[in-house]
Every structure is written in structure tokens, then in C-alpha cells.
Amino acid sequence: MQTRTLGTQGLQVSALGLGCMGMSDFYGHRDDAESTATLHHAVARGITFFDTADMYGPHTNEILVGKALASVRNKVVIATKFGIVRDPGNPGVRGVCGRPDYVHSACEGSLQRLGIEAIDLYYQHRVDPAVPIEETVGAMADLVKAGKVRFLGLSEVSAATLRRACAIHPISAVQSEYSLWTRDPEDGLLQTCRELGVGFVPYSPLGRGFLTGQIKRFEDFELGDYRRNSPRFQGENFQKNLDLVARLQDMAAARSCTPAQLALAWVLGQGGDLAPIPGTKRRERLDENLGALEQLLCPGELQELSGLFPPGIASGTRYPEAMMHMVNR
Ligand SMILES: NC(=O)c1ccc[n+]([C@@H]2O[C@H](COP(=O)([O-])OP(=O)(O)OC[C@H]3O[C@@H](n4cnc5c(N)ncnc54)[C@H](OP(=O)(O)O)[C@@H]3O)[C@@H](O)[C@H]2O)c1
User: Which atom number of ligand 1 is nearest to the Cα of residue 52?
Assistant: First the structure.
């Protein structure tokens, strides 16, 4: 397995990680047995980078991941996140909190649910506009000093906020949505990460599944699937985006690979400082996605794909209107 080093403090991870969110939440029914088997299979295939968050479930995803990885704890990097507040009794309602006391209590909760002594990579999930980033990152730095966290990260942060954060403590990784149909980080964030020596972790690199070509009808999403609420999957946007995916399918067929592999190969091709975390709860798809590491794209092919999906080409915003204000802050 190829590896990537995120940030200047030496956090080493497999070039492709595994996003675990969909195993417990957001994308249809749970199958804990297959999810656990997928986590074990990922380790066997050389994946060392696992992504969860306290709000996935909420809470249940950390428990699932911690349990499945317990026997290989010292061989893997477990990343989790705090800051999006969900009440398990009423999970539809979301808040954001970056207060220092909250940072400390959230960390204790995650350590307990994951069953580990220290979190390898701890991200603030969303920046809290009511709390200066210096205070939040200061509290995160205290967790490093206390040995409860090894490396720090920020998710969906703006370039300006990232700069302020780095002045308080080294940030090893920024995690933001990045894929063929979400090119937002190219608007300064990726460049700032490189300037500051911060690694980049693209999430939803398969466009929440859409770029695989396997999603054909809105009606196929289970009731309660998050994508039913996502503008890119709704109304006429769905068909327009499906037409875009057809371009990827044609190019994949010409290369004898799958659209998922091509979409991931494009993200991997954006630089050696990126470690994408595609999500799946199925072993078979994990194997397919790992095949992307063998699809080395030359500069001309990367450019061709970038040209097929220019920034802004996707129809619909990547989050519902009410959630767009929480990103790039
Ligand atoms: N920081 C943040 O705010 C944030 C937000 C979203 C996600 N994340 C993290 O990023 C990870 C990845 O993002 P994501 O899960 O949203 O999106 P993704 O990786 O773009 O896509 C995941 C979806 O694609 C399906 N899929 C995966 N491989 C496939 C294949 N080869 N063929 C067909 N379908 C395939 C999965 O279904 P199956 O599971 O059924 O295979 C799942 O529905 C998450 O797990 C989470 O850890 C972070």
C-alpha cells in the first residue's frame, strides 16, 4: 500500500483511507456485520486510515469502528471529529460548538466510545462562528499536551481561518469535500494548505456515490437517506448530473476501469499531499475502490477529466441551503 504523510509533523496514512460514516448513518440501512467485515478487510488490504465522527449515528459509528479495529489498534490511524452537535433523541436538529469546555468533554466521549487511549487525528468538524478559532484550537492543543490526541485537523474551514489556526498549533490535515463535481478547494484552500504544510483529506470523493454511475433513480434512495434532502440529487438536477456522469462512464469504459476508480484516480492525481477517504460498507466495493491506486493518470488525462467536470458544472448546491452557511467558514 502506498502511503502519504499529512502535515509537517509526520502523520503517515495509507494513500486511500476508508470513510466509515455510511456504515451507521446517512446512506440507508445499517448492516453492522458487513460493515465490520469491511473494516477487517480494509486492514487486510493495507488501509491504515479510518474516518469517523461523534455525530455519525450519532455516536454509534465510533462504537462500531472502535470495536472492529480494537485488535489492530496500534497499526491504524483513527480520525474522529467534534463540533456538530446532535441530540441522539432528536438527531435531525444540528448545532455547532467550538467552546473549549465542549472540546474537552467531546474528546472524553469519543475516547470512551472508540475504546482508545488517544485519538490519532482529531478534527473540528465545523467552525463555530461564535468562538474565535484561536480558543477552539487552543483547547485542541491542550488535548495534544495531555496525550489524548496526537494530531489536529479542521474540516470545511476557510483559508483565512486555517491561517489563524496554524498560528496556534500545527494543523496536520484539512478535510473538505473534493471530487470531480465539487472543486471548491481549488479556490485557494488547497494552495493555502500547501503553503502552510497542511495535508488534505478529500471527503465524499465519489460524490456521495453519484460518480460511481450506480445511482440511477431518486426513488431508489431509502426513506431517511440523507441524499433525498441534497439539492444535487433532487428534481431536474438529478438528470442533469446523471448526464455528467455519462461522460465519466464513457472515459472509464475506454480505459477498462470503473467510473468509481476513475473518479478516485483523478482525486489521487491531484497531489501526494492528499489522502482521500471514499466510504463504503461493502467489501466488494472496497476492493473496487482500491483498484484506483493502479489507475495512474498522466497529466493529459487528468486535464481531460478536469475539463469534463469544470468547477461549478454540477447542478445544485452540495448541501441544502440551510447547511451551506456552515462550510468554508
Ligand atoms: N467532514 C465532513 O463534513 C464529512 C462529510 C461527509 C463525509 N465525510 C467523511 O468522508 C467519508 C466519505 O464520504 P461519503 O461516504 O460521503 O461519500 P463517497 O465516498 O463519495 O460515497 C459513498 C457512497 O458511495 C457508495 N459507494 C462507494 N464505493 C462504491 C462503488 N465502488 N460503487 C458503487 N457505489 C459505491 C457507498 O455505498 P455503500 O456503502 O453501500 O457501498 C456510499 O453510498 C465518509 O464516510 C465520512 O467519513 C466527512
Answer: 47
Q: Write the residue with the smallest CA distance to atom 37 of ligand 1.
A: 280
Q: Closest Cα to atom 5, ligand 1: which residue?
A: 203
CB of 205 closer than 6 A to ligand 1? yes
Q: How close is the Cα of 263 to the center of ligand 1, in Å?
A: 13
CA 204 / ligand 1 centre spacing (Å): 5
Contact in structure between 203 and 185 (CB atoms under 8 Å): no
Residue ranges making up the domain that contains 91: 3-212+270-291
Residue with the smallest CA separation from ligand 1 atom 14 is 204
* 159 within some domain: yes
Residues in the chain: 329
**Cα–Cα distance between 207 and 315 in angstroms, integer?**
12
How far, in Å, CA of 177 to CA of 202, rounded?
A: 5
Integer CA distances (angstroms), 295 to 235, 244, 268, in order: 34, 21, 10
Pocket test of ligand 1: the residue of 35, 204, 210 to mutate, having most ligand atoms within 8 Å of its CB, is 204
What is the pLDDT tens value at each position of the chain, 329 positions in all?
Answer: 999 999 999 999 999 999 999 999 999 999 999 999 999 999 999 999 999 999 999 999 999 999 999 999 999 999 999 999 987 777 777 899 999 999 999 999 999 999 999 999 999 999 999 999 999 999 999 999 999 999 999 999 999 999 999 999 999 999 999 999 999 999 999 999 999 999 999 999 999 999 999 999 999 999 999 999 999 999 999 999 999 999 999 999 999 999 999 999 999 999 999 999 999 999 999 999 999 999 999 999 999 999 999 999 999 999 998 889 899 99
Q: How many domains does the chain contain in total?
A: 1
Q: CATH number of the domain at 82, please.
A: 3.20.20.100
CB count in 10 Å sphere of residue 11: 22
Measured in Å, residue 20 CA sits from the centre of ligand 1 at 8
Residue 179, in any domain of the structure: yes
Catalytic-residue membership of 56: yes
Report the predicted TM-score, pTM, of the whole model to 2 decimal places. 0.97
Place of cell 464513457: 250
State residue 223 phi and psi, 5-degree precision: -60, 135
